[in-house]
Q: What sequence folds into this?
């Protein structure tokens, strides 16, 4: 049964795209067929991580939502970034980075039924095991749609007060949408914090499973948004923590 | 009479009887011609009683004890009453200095006060006896009594008390063995040994009648006075020296207390850590250690602060209802149900 996993956070800069990309790559490396959709139409970015030049993307999610093309034409095989050991497949459905396209979607919006249909078609056409949805931060209509469609919701937060408050709202709204499975992921935890204690505290506060606590990694900072951390530093503490999250959400 | 006063009086009288008997014994078995420093250990008794029981009990022991001793010896109970007062003062003064103020003799300072009070008590006691004699009794003649009676009385009591009172207080547990008291006891012991050697050789010389000329005896007096003077000077120097030696340890102790109370900057160690010796090294290591502990403590406190998750539940409820209580949301929820049902 293919699974749709939405990755969300209340505020920007929590590392959503990075986490989504890393989880997708790890799954693909294990031989799964994995798709990633960039629904952050206002500020798309995940294509950078997958080395997809926007100029090469003749069709995007935007084109599909306006009925200009079939979803299949907006799907790009980016498996080459997995390296020579690739066994699974990795696909990306990018959003358009053209400002005109962005404004148009924001102005007219789109229909959730269409979106759901598109995902379904992409899953069937490319025989996907997993489809990751990278969302725009906050709780606008588009992100609510992604949450409504998802089988599993991963909510990222950083250990600071603003994230704590916003995440509380996100968790309750997601519960109201009856998301089947929901996990919290604490990202950018300072080295001074004990991960287990923080996870326990967060889990108790939100009454929600914590899939993992990701340490603040300087290597990740240096890498910036180019490249997939798990592929380059699998044995770092961050790499192992991301692997741990995967094992939590797979079961 | 209140029970404390009763206890003091009773203890004073009991020890007075003991003191009196011992006094009469040494009057009977008077060491012949031991002119300067005699063996008169019982003087430590009123002093120790004054320190351990009560200053007044010490006074009673000295005073009444001397009455008893004189009476038994056949001197007449109140003939030399000035010496009763002198003995009383020797019991009273160390008690006043130590009994209430120094519960634990565990520093050089406390030990110095103890020994100082003993020497002072002997001087004050003998001095008082001399003044009273000169005013009322006229048994003594000056200056002839000075070397034959007054000085020997003072030196004998001072040296005996100086040696024996600390021994009694050590057994009674009043002197606590610390680095400071051990060091000063050791130095005091060496000083006393040298004084006793002098006193012993003089006594032996006189006993053996090696010295018959009055002039030589006079010289021995001077030697005895000088050696007791050296005892006092040596003791004072030792007190200063030992305090200098152990002061860094006291500073380290205070620094450790500061760390225990959660203060990790230690200006009190500045003087010690500037030293080139082993204690300086210890102080520097201690400062570094305190710094590390402080850092760790701060990071722990930061952690605890970071682990505080406070959520404004009212604001959360408002924000949630702003989203959930809309037609859009209700429609979305319906659709989501349909997707998942499908």
A:
């Amino acid at each position: 049964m293919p699974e749709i996993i939405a990755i969300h956070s209340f505020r920007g800069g929590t590392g959503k795209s990075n986490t989504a990309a890393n989880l997708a790559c790890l799954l693909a490396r294990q031989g799964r067929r994995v798709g990633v959709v960039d629904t952050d139409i206002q500020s798309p970015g995940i294509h950078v991580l997958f080395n997809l030049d926007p100029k090469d993307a003749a069709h995007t999610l935007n084109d599909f939502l306006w009925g200009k093309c079939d979803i299949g034409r907006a799907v790009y095989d980016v498996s080459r970034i997995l390296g020579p050991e690739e066994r699974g497949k990795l696909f990306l459905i990018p959003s358009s980075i053209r400002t005109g396209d962005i404004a148009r979607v924001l102005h007219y919006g789109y229909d959730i039924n269409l979106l759901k249909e598109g995902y379904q078609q992409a899953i069937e056409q490319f025989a996907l095991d997993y489809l990751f949805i990278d969302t725009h931060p906050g709780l606008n209509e588009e992100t609510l749609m992604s949450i409504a469609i998802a089988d599993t919701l991963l909510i990222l937060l950083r250990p600071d007060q603003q994230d704590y408050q916003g995440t509380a709202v996100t968790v309750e709204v997601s519960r109201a949408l009856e998301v089947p499975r929901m996990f919290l992921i604490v990202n950018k935890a300072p080295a001074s914090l004990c991960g287990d204690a923080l996870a326990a505290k967060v889990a108790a506060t939100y009454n929600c499973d914590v899939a993992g606590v990701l340490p603040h990694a300087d290597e990740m900072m240096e890498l910036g948004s180019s490249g997939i951390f798990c592929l380059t530093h699998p044995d770092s503490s961050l790499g192992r923590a991301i692997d741990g999250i995967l094992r939590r959400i797979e079961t | 009479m209140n029970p404390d006063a009763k206890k003091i009086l009773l203890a004073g009288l009991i020890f007075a009887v003991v003191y009196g008997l011992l006094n009469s014994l040494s009057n009977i078995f008077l060491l012949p011609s031991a002119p300067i420093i005699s063996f008169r250990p019982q003087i430590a008794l009123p002093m120790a009683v004054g320190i351990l029981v009560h200053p007044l009990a010490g006074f009673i022991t000295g005073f009444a004890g001397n009455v008893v001793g004189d009476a038994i010896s056949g001197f007449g109970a109140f003939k030399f009453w000035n010496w009763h007062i002198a003995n009383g003062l020797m019991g009273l003064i160390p008690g006043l200095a130590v009994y209430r103020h120094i519960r634990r003799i565990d520093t050089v300072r406390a030990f110095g006060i103890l020994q100082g009070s003993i020497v002072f008590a002997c001087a004050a006691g003998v001095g008082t006896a001399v003044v009273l004699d000169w005013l009322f009794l006229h048994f003594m003649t000056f200056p002839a009594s000075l070397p034959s009676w007054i000085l020997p009385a003072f030196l004998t009591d001072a040296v005996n008390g100086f040696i024996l009172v600390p021994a009694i207080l050590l057994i009674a547990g009043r002197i606590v063995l610390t680095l400071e008291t051990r060091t000063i006891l050791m130095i005091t012991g060496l000083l006393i040994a040298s004084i006793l050697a002098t006193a012993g050789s003089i006594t032996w010389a006189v006993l053996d009648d090696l010295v018959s000329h009055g002039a030589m005896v006079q010289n021995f007096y001077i030697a005895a006075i000088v050696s007791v003077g050296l005892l006092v000077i040596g003791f004072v120097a030792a007190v200063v020296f030992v305090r200098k030696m152990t002061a860094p340890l006291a500073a380290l102790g205070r620094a450790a207390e500061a760390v225990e109370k959660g203060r990790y900057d230690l200006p009190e160690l500045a003087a010690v850590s500037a030293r080139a010796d082993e204690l300086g090294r210890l102080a520097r290591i201690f400062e570094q250690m305190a710094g590390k502990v402080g850092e760790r403590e701060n990071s722990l406190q930061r952690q605890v602060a970071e682990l505080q998750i406070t959520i404004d539940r009212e604001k959360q409820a408002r924000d949630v209802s702003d989203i959930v209580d809309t037609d859009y949301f209700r429609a979305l929820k319906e659709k989501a149900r349909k997707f998942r049902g499908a």
In short: DSSP finds twelve helices and no strands in chain B. The mean pLDDT of chain B is 85. The two ends of chain B are 103 Å apart (CA to CA).
